[in-house]
Amino acid sequence: MFAVSRFTKGEIEKLFGIPASRIEVVYNAIDERFLRGHTNDSDRQFLAERYLVNYPFILYAGRISPHKNVVRIIEAFSALKAELDKESKYPDLKLIIIGDELSKHPDLRRTVIRGGVQNDVRFMGFVPIEVLRIFYDSAKTFVFPSLYEGFGLPPLEAMAHGTPVLTSNTSSLPEVVGNAAVLVNPENVFEIMRALHRVLLDQTLRERMKQRGYDQAKKFSWDASAREILNVYENVIGQRSEKVRSRNDEESLPKVANT
User: How far is CA 185 from the centre of its chain?
Assistant: First the structure.
């Protein structure tokens, strides 16, 4: 059996009682289109004209479901805006959420209104990968405080574009992002807010995260994953062949009668 992370392997062991020796970890990998390098001025012009994005923004991209913790992202962003306003920094900062339409999630609409950020949070729905690449590349920070992930591809996709990533200190995410992201307790809104504030304003930290992010994203390729799967199959076939040979050798030995 294959698992996409060590965390997932542990969950399979606990939930199904499958021995660890029968589970192999083979990581997911990001789409190679996210590894094509940075976007250019014409791409950013497209973003401004087609999507009317001509301001700094924090980005979330992924499915919208309760365990993705989008409500707390909005709450943290609302608190962040209040803090930045006091400091007269990033007055035009927005939060862009890619993954679904706001009309499908009344709870998120209520959270936006309650936080007073109706003019600062935009829901883009789904966008093509080539457009998503531009959003990743243009974002000031990518935020992904999911409560539970078997693997978690979006942080790596953002890292491939040199965008600083803030994500959860739970489930598989620390394993996936290594030392290239800022980790937070996903259930603590103010911890998320403080981490966003730090990543936005600490230029030294941003540069360090940018380089570490590039390095981390490169570790996860489909070529490497395919080789690992092939190695597992070859080992299994080799072990079975050895067992068959051993059994055949035993059967070919002369029988000695007991008298």
Answer: 16
pTM (predicted TM-score): 0.87
Burial (Cβ within 10 Å: 0-12, 13-18, ≥19) of residue 59: buried
Interatomic CA distance for residues 7 and 12, integer angstroms: 9
- pLDDT tens, residue order, the chain (259 aa): 889 989 999 999 999 999 998 888 989 988 888 887 777 889 889 999 999 999 999 999 999 999 999 999 999 999 999 999 999 999 999 999 998 777 788 899 999 999 999 999 999 999 999 999 999 999 999 999 999 999 999 999 999 999 999 999 999 999 999 999 999 999 999 999 999 999 999 999 999 999 999 999 999 988 887 888 888 788 778 666 555 555 555 555 555 444 4
Alpha-carbon gap, residue 114 to 243, rounded angstroms: 66
| Alpha-carbon distances, residue 177 vs 152, 157, 180, 216 (angstroms) | 9, 11, 6, 7
The rounded distance, in Å, linking the Cα atoms of 190 and 201 is 17
Q: DSSP states of 160-188 as a string?
A: TTT--EEEESSTTHHHHHTTSSEEE-TT-
φ/ψ of 181, rounded to 5, equals -130, 165
Enumerate domains of the chain plus CATH numbers. 1-29+221-240 (no CATH), 33-220 (3.40.50.2000)
**Eight-class DSSP state of 254:** P
Per the CB < 8 A criterion, the answer to whether 163 and 141 are in contact is yes
